[in-house]
Amino acid sequence: MNQIGEAAFQAAALDHTKAAWGKGVRLAAGNDTGHFPHGENVRQLELMHGTGVTLLDVLRAAILGGWEACGGDWGGRRFGLLRAGWAADLLAIQNDTRENTGAFRKFSLIMKDWSAVEDFRIVE
Predict the structure, then answer these.
(1) 10-48 confidence digits (pLDDT tens)
(2) Where are the domains of the chain?
(3) Are the C-beta atoms of residues 109 and 90 closer than 8 Å to each other?
(4) Contact of 56 with 73, CB cutoff 8 Å
(5) Are the beta carbons of 57 and 63 closer than 8 angstroms?
(6) Structural Rg of the chain based on CA atoms
(7) pLDDT for 123
(8) Are 72 and 57 in contact (CB under 8 A)?
(9) What confidence score (pLDDT) does residue 68 get?
(10) Over the chain, what is the mean pLDDT?
């Protein structure tokens, strides 16, 4: 896809996201729900918020939206909540995400399935 095609695609995707959210559709965000490479999906959250989606709904899309979109309990794996028996991927974020999506880029710890990830990089 050329740059003009990519820009038009992104603009249309953002318009559709805003329209769907405005009609009450629950959103999902994450590695497999957008066209962002693994590790760069924070950009998806920033763009989603830029359309007017509230930060609370952006957080919900990032934390529970994918699990719900995959059928929730029907998907065979429980994640999205901190509960015994559930998978847990966590970020220790240094600032309040309710105030600024830039906080998603400032974290000090990553955990994958309850284990700390030792070597991680922040993608700008």
Answers:
(1) 889 899 999 999 999 999 887 654 565 666 778 888 889
(2) 3-116
(3) yes
(4) no
(5) no
(6) 15
(7) 46
(8) no
(9) 84
(10) 78
Q: Is 85 helix (H, G, I), strand (E, B) or coil?
A: coil
Closest CA to 29 of 48, 11, 14, 15: 48
d(C-alpha 27, C-alpha 21), whole Å: 7
Return all residues near 10 (Cβ < 8 A) that are at least 6 apart. Answer: 47
Strand boundaries in 1-124, DSSP class E: 90-93, 107-112, 115-116
User: 22 near 32, Cβ under 8 Å?
Assistant: no
108 membership: H or E segment, kind and range = strand 107-112
| Residue-level pLDDT at 73 | 77
